[in-house]
Amino acid sequence: MQAAQEYIGTRVVNVSSVPQRSPFRYPGGKTWLVPYIRLWLRSVGGRTCELIEPFAGGAIVSLTAVAENLVKRATLVELDEEVGAVWRVILNGDGVKLADDVAKFQMSLEAVKSVLTMQHRTLYDQAFATLVKNRVQRGGILAPGASLMKMGENGRGILSRWYPETLRRRILTIVAMNDKIAFVQGDGMDVLRKNAGRSDAAYFIDPPYTIAGKRLYTHSTIDHEALFRIADTLTGDFLMTYDSAKEIRWLAAKHGFDTVEIPMKNTHHAKKVELLVGRDLSWARVGTGGWPAQASRVSVPQKALG
Q1: Domain residue extents for the chain
Q2: Fewest C-beta atoms under 10 Å: which of 16, 154, 240, 244?
Q3: Answer CATH for 5-79+186-305 from 3.50.50.60, 3.40.50.150, 3.30.2420.10, 3.10.180.10
C-alpha cells in the first residue's frame, strides 16, 4: 500500500519521508502535518517554550518537536486509560522492558487472543496489551467494537502491522528523551485551563473529529464550543486541527481566529481537507522553500454568527 501523502507548497511529499516516531498506529494521526508543525514552531520561537498537547493520542507532534529540538520540552495529556498506560510505562521506568518484550512476542492469533482477553493486573500488562491491540485491530482503532484485521496487507492478517524491531527502536528512542517529556493522565481541557496564563508554552490542540470521533476513539465526546473559549484565553500561541466541519468554521469565525484548509491524501488515497485554526496562520500560507501553500483562508458569513 502506498504511504499517505501530504502537501507542502506546490509539491506533494510522501509521508514516508517524515520520521515515524510514535509506537502507535493512530486514527487521525498527524504525521502528514509534521512539515507544517516545523513551520509553526519556528515562527513562534518554540525552542524556548514547552509544547503542551492536550489530546496526545499517538503524540507524533510532540515526539517530533522534542526529537528535532523544536521545543524545550513537551507535556502529553491523554484521557484514554489504555493509551495512557503505554505512555506511563514508556516514560516512567519500564520502557526498556516493554521494548524488549515487544521484540520477543511471537505474534499469532492464539497469542493475540490470550493477551487481549487476559485480566490486566498491572499497568504494564495493560500497556503491553494496548500496543498489541493497536497493531492488530483494523485501522489501529482502540474504541469498543473494533475488530481484528482479517486480510491485512498482502493477506498477512494480524501480522500486517506487527514490526517488532521497528517498535522496539521507537520505544527506546522515546525512553532516551524521557527527561524532556512529561505525561499527564487526565482531561486535556482541564490542563489547558490550568496553563492558560503561561507565556512560555505553546499548545498543539488536536481534539477528536466532530464526525468520525465516536467510531475512532473511546473518549470522543467533547464540548467544542468550550474548547474554543479556552483557546481564546491562552497566553501562548496555539495551533488547532479539525475536520473542516461547518460548526468548527463557525466557532473559529466567532472567536476571530485565523483558519486555513490543508488538502491531504490518506492511506486509502482519498482526498480530504483538514482545518488549521490559530491566531495568525500566515506562516501556513507559504510552504517550505517559498512556494505558496495550497491552502485557503476560510471565511464564515457575518450573518452566520448570530
Answers
A1: 5-79+186-305, 95-170
A2: 154
A3: 3.40.50.150
If we measure between CA atoms, which residue out of 226, 290, 284 comes closest to residue 259?
A: 284
What is the pairing mode between strands 238-243 and 271-278?
Answer: antiparallel
Q: Which residues contact 95 (CB under 8 A, 6 or more apart)?
A: 89, 171, 172, 174, 175, 178
Helix ranges (H only) for the chain are 34-43, 60-67, 81-91, 95-104, 109-117, 123-136, 164-176, 188-195, 213-216, 224-233, 246-254
Grid cell of 243 as nine digits: 475536520
HSE at residue 75, side-chain half, CA atoms within 13 A, is 17
Cell of 46: 518554540
Q: What global pTM score does this model have?
A: 0.81
**DSSP characters for 124-186?**
HHHHHHHHHHHHHBGGG--STT--B-SS-GGG-GGGTT--HHHHHHHHHHHHHTGGGEEEEES
The CA angle 126-27-235, to the nearest 5 degrees, is 95
For the record, the C-alpha cell of 126 comes out as 495493560
Digits of tens for pLDDT over the chain (306 positions)?
A: 333 344 444 344 455 667 889 998 866 678 888 899 999 999 998 788 999 999 999 999 999 999 999 999 999 999 999 999 999 999 998 999 999 999 998 877 788 778 777 777 899 999 998 888 888 765 545 555 554 545 444 445 555 567 889 999 999 999 999 999 999 999 999 999 999 999 999 999 999 875 543 444 343 468 899 999 999 999 999 999 988 888 889 999 999 999 998 876 555 455 677 899 999 999 988 753 433 344 433 333 333 333
Gap between the Cα atoms of 131 and 82, Å rounded: 9
Q: Which amino acid is at 238?
A: F
